[in-house]
Amino acid sequence: MDTDAVTVRQGTLDMLVLKALSLEPMHGWGIAERIQQISRDVLRVQQGSLYPALHRLEGRGLLAAEWRPSDDNRKAKYYRLTAAGRRLLATEQAEWERFMVAVQRVMQAV
Amino acid sequence: MRFLRAAWFTLRSLFDRSTLDDELDLELRDHIERETRANMSRGLTRAEARRAALVAFGGVQRYKEEAQDTRPARWLEDAAQDARYALRALRRTPAFAVVIVLTLALGVGATTAVFTVVNGVLLRPLPFREPDRLFVVSWLPTDLPFQPPPGLPDRVYLAYRERVRAFEQVSAYQRAQFTLSGVGDATRLAGVRVTSRFFEVLGRSPARGRAFAADDEQPGRENVAIISDKLWRQRFGGDSQIIGRTITLDGVQHTVVGVAPADFTFPSSPDIWAPLAIRLDKGNSFILSVLGRLRSGATPPQAARELASIATSLPSDPRDRGQNVAAILPLKAVVTAHIERSLLVFSAAVTFVLLIAGVNVANLLLIRAAARRQEMALRVSLGASRLRLVRQLLTESLLLSLVGAVLGVLIAFAGVHALVTLAPAGRIPRLDEVKVDGWMLGFTLALSLAAGILFGLFPALDSTRADVRPATTQGARTVAGAHSRLRGRFVAVEIALAFVLLTGAGLMIKSFVRMLSVDTGYDASGVVTMSVDLPNTSYPDAARVQQFHTALLDRLSHIPGVRAVGAVSFRPMGGMGIMGDFKVEGPTPLGSGFNVDKPTVSPGYFGAMRIRLLRGRDFSTRDDAASPGVVIVSASVARAVWPNEDAVGKRISMQDRPGPGDWLTVIGVVGDVVQDGALTPHATIYLPFLQVKSLFFINHMTYVVRTATGAAGVAPAMRAALRDVDAAVPAQALQTMNASMLEVVAEPLFQTRLLTTFSFLALLLAAIGTYGVLAYDVAERKREIGIRIALGAQSIRVLRMIVGRALLFVGTGVSAGILIALGTMRILSRFLFGVSPTDPATLATTAATLALVAVVAGLVPAQRASRVDPMEALKQD
C-alpha cells in the first residue's frame, strides 16, 4: 500500500462512486480503476470497501444495476446513476466546493 | 421513482435473499478475476496475480458481510434467523415452553377478561351526547332507616323545572311496569314513564319515529309509547310499519310513535317508554327520578345550592322533617354505583393472579437461563457478540410471549363469555354491551410482550456474562447460591399473593354459607309463588279486587297436590315492600318513627308459608269489610310496643289522626320473617285483604302455594286457574320460593364463584412455581446431595431437607400473606355476611392448605433427591 495514499472515508467514498459513474455505467472493478486513474493514484480505495458503498447506494435508489455481458462476454453487474443519483451528485459537488473554498480561505488567512 | 426502486430492492432482499447472496458472490468473484488478469498483464504469474488481487481487495468475507449488512431489511433477516434459532432451542425443552406459555396465557387472558368487563361497565362513557354533563338531581331526607334512590318529590320537581338555571334541561322519569296484551300471550314488561324532554336531555333520539312532544304530557293525550329495539324485533318482527300501530298496554290502546336505538337502554333496559303526566295528589307526594344536562360553565355545587334554595322556598310539606339534602350526582356514578366495589375487587383479584403468573414466568426463565449458562459462556468465548446472544435469548422470550398472547386472547374471549353468562341477571348494568374489542386485544398483546421482555431481560443479560469459569468453581457456586435464594424469594412472594386470594375466597364462601343457612322465619321448600297485577281499568275498586283474589285463592286450593294456599301483597325476597309507621292506642315505650312493613295477606298465608303463629289466631274469611278491623303483628313489634304484655287485644291505627272507626285490634302474633337481601328479620304488621280499601295495597298480590310434589307439577295448573278467573291478567314470576332465594343471593354467589376460581388458579400457579424451583434446586445440587448420601445421610434426611425448604417458602410466604390479608380484607367487609374480615379460622385453614400444597409439590423432587445415586452424582461434573 502506498504510504502517500489517503484513506477515504465513507461519505466521501459515496461521492467518488457517484462521480465515477457520472460519465457512463460501470462495474465494480471498473469503478475502482477509474477512481485510481482520475486521482492519479493518490486515492487508493481498498477495493472491497466499494461493494458495501455500491449496495447501499443501490438500496437508496441512487444507483440502478443490471447484469450485462461485459467486454469479454462474461456477465458483470453494471451500475449506473439514476436521476436521483445525478441530483444528489450535483448537490454534493456544490457542497464540497463550498467546503474547499472555505478551507482554502482559512488556510491562507494566517 | 427513487422510492419505487428502493422499495423493490427491499422486497427482493426480504424474499429473494439467496438469489441476492449468489449475485453478490458472483460480483465479488468477478472483481477478483478482473484484478487478477490486470495483474497478469503487468507481468505477474497467475498465482502471484491472484494473491495481489486478494490483498488489494481486502478481506473478502468481511466486505461481503458488510455489503449484505447494507441491505435495508437486514434487521428483519436477523430477526427471522433469531426466530428460527429460538424455535429450535425451545423445542429442545418442550416442558418449559409449554408451562411458560400456559402460565402467561392464563394470567394475561384472565386479566383481559376482567378488564374488558370493567371497561364495558364502569369506564366506558354512557352512550349519550356529552355524557359528563348529565347529572341526577336529588332532594331527599338523609335520616331514613334505609337509603332511598336519588329523586325529587313531584312538587319540588315542578318548581325546579320552572326556575332552574344551572341546568339547560331537566327531565323526570319513573320506572313502571306495563302489561302488553293483544300480541301473543299477555306479558308483563319493564318500562319507564318519562317527561317529554327526556330524550332531548340525553341527546339521543329514537331510531325510528319521534321522541315525545310537550303535548304528550297533557292528561288525555298520553296514550303514546316508544318501544325498545328488542321488543320491536322480538314481538313485532321488526315490522317496518310499526310507527302509528296501536298496542294495548294495561288494557289501554297506545300508539307507537317511536322505536329506541338498539344501544339505548336507559334506565334499566326498559321495553316501553311512555309519557309521564305529573298529577299532584293532595295526600301523597311521589318521588320522581330526575336527571338534567348541566349548562356549560355551571358546576354541580352551584346547582346543588340552587336546588336547596328553590326547594326550601316552597311551602313546606307537614310531613317533611326538614332533614333534606341537595345532591347533584354524575349520571354514570349513579348507574354503576352498586357494582363499582364488586368490580374493583375482581380487578384486584385478577391482578394478583397476573402477578403470580408473572413471578412464575420469571422464575422459569431464570431457571432456564441458569441451565444454559455454560452454553452461553462457551459461545461468548468463541466470539459471539453479547448483543447478538442477548437478542437471541430475548427472541425466545418474545416468541413464548406471542404464543402466550394468542392463547391468552382465546382465554379472554371464553372468560368474557363466562362472566357475562354467570353474572346475576339484571344486576350489572350495561353488561350485554360488553365485548372484546380491538383495544382489549391490543392490551393482551402488549401485556404479554411486556411480560416477555421484562422477565426475559435479566436472565438473558445475566447468563451471557463472559464468565467462563466452570460451574464447579467457588465463584460459580456463589452465583448459583444467590440465584437460588432469589428464586426462593420469588416463590415466597407467590405464596403470599396466593394466600391473600385464598383467604378472600374462603371468607366469601363462609359468608355465603352463612347466608344460605339464615333462619328466614318461613319454610320455603315446596312453595311456588305467582304474582299478579290488576289493572285499574278493569279493577277500579277494592270490592272487585277482593272478589278476584277470593276466586283465585279458591281455584288454587283445588289443584291436586296443593296442600295450602295464601296470598301476600309483597312476598319475602320479592324486592319490594311498603313501609310506614303507625299509631298505638294507650301508653307505650315506643318513640315515633318506628317503621314496619305493612303487607296485606289472605287467611291461610301464614299456614302456607309455615310462619309460626305465636299467640292468638290467623285471619279468617269472617274478617271482612263488615267486621271490626283487625291486624296481626310480628314478634318484634309485640316486643317493642308492648314489652311485658300480651299484644293480642291491643289496638293500633294506620292513620295519622285516627278517628273512632280507625282503630284496628291485634288478634295474633306471628314470628318475624326475613324480607330482603339484608337477611335481617323485619318488624311487620299484617292486614287482611278483605278489609283493605286502598287499591294501592291490594292490586299487586303474590300467591303462595305449598305443594306436596314440587313446582313442576303445579305451575301449569296455576296458570290455568288464573286464566279461568281472568284471561287478561298475565302470570308473573311463576317460580319456586327457593329460586327466589337464589335470586337474592345471586350476586354474592357470583362474587364467591369468581373469587374462588381466581384463587384456584393462583394456588395451581403457586404449586407449579414451588415444584419448578425445588426440582431445579435438586438438579443443581445433585453433587452435594450425592456426597451427603455417600457420607451416610439417610434418604429420610435428604427428603426432609427438600421438604423443609418447601416449608420455608410457605412459612415466609404465609407470614407475609397474613400481614397483607389483615390489611386488605377490610375491603371485602361490605360483601361479608356474619363473618369478620379477619376471621382467624379462615386464615388458619388457608395457611394449612397452602402448606399442604407446598409439601405435595415438593414431594416429587424430594423423592428424586433421596434416590440420588452417589456414584452417579460424583461422576457428573
Summarize it:
With 110 residues, chain A is α+β, with helices and mostly antiparallel strands. Chain A is built from 4 helices and 3 strands.
Report on the architecture of this protein.
Chain A contains four helices and three strands; from the N terminus they run αβααββα. Chain A has 110 residues and is an alpha+beta fold. In chain A, helix 1 crosses helix 3. Chain A is globular and about 55 Å long. Residues 1-5 of chain A have low confidence and may be disordered. Chain B is α+β, with helices and mostly antiparallel strands and 877 residues long. Helices cover 53% and strands 15% of the residues of chain B. Chain B has 26 helices and 26 strands. In chain B, the strands form five sheets. In chain B, strands 15, 17, 18, 19, 20, 21 and 24 form a seven-stranded mixed β-sheet that branches. In chain B, helix 2 packs antiparallel against helix 4 (60-69), helix 6 crosses helix 13 and helix 24 packs antiparallel against helix 25. The longest helix of chain B has 43 residues, at 474-516. Chain B starts with a helix and ends with a helix. The model of chain B has no long low-confidence stretch (mean pLDDT 85). Classes of the chains: A alpha+beta (110), B alpha+beta (877). Chain A binds chain B through residues 27-29, 32-33, 46-49, 51-52, 54-56, 58-62, 64, 67, 74-77, 82-84, and chain B through 1-6, 9-10, 13, 23-24, 26-28, 30-31, 34-35, 38, 56-60, 62-64, 66-72.
